[in-house]
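Researcher: Here's a chain I'd like modeled. Treat it as a single chain, no partners, no ligands.
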Amino acid sequence: MQNTPRPSRKNTSGDHDPVVGAPGASEGRLPSNNLPLQLTSFVGRKREMAQVRALLEDSRLLTLTGPGGSGKTRLALAVASDMAQRFEEGVWLVELASLSDPDLVPRAVASVLGVRESSDTTLADSL
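Model: Modeled as a single isolated chain. Structure tokens:
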């Protein structure tokens, strides 16, 4: 019998409630996230994963660059999934590829995080 990888249960719905009773979760809870469920295992690239993890120790924002199709998104998702439990508020994916106007970035981030603009604070300041 072939050993087929099975996806782990994660909160991929985008809501803020953690998954309860997921396998391997300490105290029965995993941090919130909106990461897409990965249906296949991530093989190789251990060196790159270690580099990304190390960079995230000192920075809250990291940009991966490279040619299209080189696996930047898959690498980022693998590291984010691996490190999700280290962040109290969880790990959140904000898709920016479809944006053509940089002024829309704060609104896209706020939408994913559930941050709302108020009359006395700009959206950028709230973020």
